[in-house]
Amino acid sequence: MAKTAARKRLDPAERRTQILDEMLKLCANQHFASITMRQLAGACGVNIALLYHYFDNKDVLVHATLRHAIDDFLVAFDDLPKDADAPLGAADAWIAATIDAAPRLTRMVKLMSDFGTQENRDAEALAMVDEFYARERETLRQAILEGIADGRFRQVDAERTARLTSIAIDGVFYGGPARNDFDHGGNLRDIRDQLLEFLARPG
Amino acid sequence: MAKTAARKRLDPAERRTQILDEMLKLCANQHFASITMRQLAGACGVNIALLYHYFDNKDVLVHATLRHAIDDFLVAFDDLPKDADAPLGAADAWIAATIDAAPRLTRMVKLMSDFGTQENRDAEALAMVDEFYARERETLRQAILEGIADGRFRQVDAERTARLTSIAIDGVFYGGPARNDFDHGGNLRDIRDQLLEFLARPG
């Protein structure tokens, strides 16, 4: 009865979101290929037929999970107020969104990583991943270029600095579980502070 | 007959190394939990009984694979000549070893990551991983402290800078497959160059 009650409470959009959130959680500790529809149904407290009502097959579900995770982050970033006086401009909002969303991003990068290390590259998934990284790099690069144009930052290679900052952020998330270091907020703030020190004009 | 000939060629130490190398290769594209002893035997061109002659069970084998990968890197680093005039001292040798060993390190961090994201934390494996990172951070930290003591580098928080550099190196390896960016050499050289710029005294 509890299950039926739970099912009644959610409208289709909420149910879809719940399924994708549960799938993303399972992906944190398991390769998506080894997660069964039955297992996911159990985690959602629904029957397996309902999953197939929302997603034709597991392939569609896994791609929708990645899409959901990325969009969710990008929407959170877009919704964040952009403080014109923030030292890193929109990049400060990006880093703040990253800190806020750290638990979800940990799951998202695990899913990205599982797609990335697959023997057969999945073009559709990797295109979504590319879109995410392009947005991150571009946000960082623009913020650095604006600071240089304003004379607040010294002349640096903005493309390289943005790329290396994006790589360092990756190190926090992808490497955290192996390093047993889950202080994502602290590490991300340190990356930001060191970046600002790097960009500071001498004197 | 080919298999028999191959088996005769290797002495026990070589055979053990071959098995561990093949296992490490399989770990690059598969979670270690889903690799079967049969699959590994096939990859090595030996029969499954021989694997059990060297390793009592898969758990022992997987731990030996991680140990092998880490030791292999540390030996390569220790063997590398340390150029007293290198701007980053021993850390330059560390980064050079990392560039040289990039394909193997990609496999090693995938294995580390699979241990790190397991639901049940594996204390033995994580202790080996910790040992590797402690060595990396300490090598970087010492090199930075020496440069500060010599007056070549400005005063920075050596612990933080070493930790963030280690995290950025992680980003190159762990994040590479998802970002579809396999220019490990280029990215590592950029991290080194940016670090030296960060450490440079103004003027």
From TrEMBL, chains A, B:
It comes from the Bacteria. This is TetR/AcrR family transcriptional regulator. Residues 13-73 form the HTH tetR-type domain. Transmembrane segments: none annotated. The keyword DNA repair does not apply. The keyword Glycoprotein does not apply. GO terms for molecular function: DNA-binding transcription factor activity; transcription cis-regulatory region binding. Residues 36-55 bind DNA. Keywords: DNA-binding, Plasmid, Transcription, Transcription regulation.
